[in-house]
Amino acid sequence: MEQVNNSQFQLLNHLQRTKRSFYAFVSLLLLCLLAYNSATIFYTKAPFPAKNSPEQASFSPETAPGKSIKSFSVPSSTKLSSSAPHAVKVERPVGKLKTHFPLLFKNTNLVAFLNTSVVYHPKRRKKHSRGFKVKPFSVRVKEFFNANPLNFSCKFRFFMTWISSLESFGDRELFTIESLFKTHPNGCLIIVSSSMDSRTGMQILKPFLGKGFKVTAISPDFNYLFNNTAAQSWYNQLVQGNVNPGEISLGQNLSNLLRLGLLYRFGGIYLDTDILVLKSFKKLRNTIGAQTINPETRNWSRLNNAVMIFDQGHPLLYKFIEEFALTFDGNKWGHNGPYLVSRVVSRITGRPGYNFTVLPPMAFYPVYWSRIGSLFQRPRNETHSKWLIAKLMQIQSQSFTVHLWNKQSRGFKVEEGSIIEQIMLDSCVFCNSSSFTS
């Protein structure tokens, strides 16, 4: 009897252990199901990041610490250069900047500044596919000037710079090119610009190519242009973030230096893109123009760098470049441009070794910037009509160019019977297609 009771106790004990194991198994199963369900919910609520990183937040000058500085951009589709140093404040993420000077896009060493302590680097452009590499700047320039048909020679080497977007290269700029080729059909023009050095940019210039004119766009190489000049050290300091760019557009100031480097390396004629060419430069050599004169002494009081004609390696150009590097000030408008050439010429005038000519204002700047609107106006009355006729005859007989001062005249309309309308009729290549409206 005792043995039977003992067997029953053991059976009961076994059943209890089995029951506990069953409950433990069920609990474990429920926990697994709960964990799986939780993981599924988390997965649906927080998916893995996309392969492509989202665009960085916009960065405006208003949000920058300290003074408001004009912004510039880097292309958003390429990677930041790792070859140049960069120092970015940790408390402010690097933003996608907006540009005012795409001229610099292809220059992989250039940095842009929002202030003296925040430095941004432009992104590298993707190289052409299938292993095609763009030729160096110097090679492209020399090949363009030299690779011409036997019946064509680049008798005149023209340079322009374009520091704005491709979209802003409009009718006015195209008409300046028309006037250039109307007066210099055997000239060759290089537009030094990264925005124009593109498939779309060449499409804009295609009508001129169809007419047989020699024109192209090439992105600049600052290192090549400034090599072995005082600007080389200045530019290196700029790249390293040791130069305060100031409040004036850095692109504008670099354009002032770029034109000097182009003429120093290659020689030729530099023109701003708001210069209308009225007659041939064939008799001009090593020439710069006065913008204003002293009414008492009749000597020039200010020069301008919107039109310059110089031989390759001219010593005055070297002095201009040296002055830029030694006295750069990004906070004073014109300090690194018109005022710069005025300072240098005033110092070296009369010294031996410099051979150049300063032409009077009527040569390149027949109308002062504040009065440029008078050239766009139609005759108001008989007296005004006589004045317009006399002014037009004076410009046609004494002036090589007319500076339109685009900043002041961009919004002006060309009125019927105005001086500008007559100049357009005389200077056009595509006479039925050009428009000079704002």
UniProtKB/TrEMBL annotation:
The record's annotation in SUPFAM superfamilies points to: Nucleotide-diphospho-sugar transferases
Q: Read off the Gene3D superfamilies from this record.
A: 3.90.550.20
- TM ranges are 21-43
Which domain of life does this protein belong to?
Answer: Eukaryota
Source organism (scientific name)? Fraxinus pennsylvanica
Instruction: Note whether Membrane occurs among the keywords.
Output: yes
Which keywords does UniProt give here?
Membrane, Transmembrane, Transmembrane helix
Which protein are we looking at? Alpha 1,4-glycosyltransferase domain-containing protein
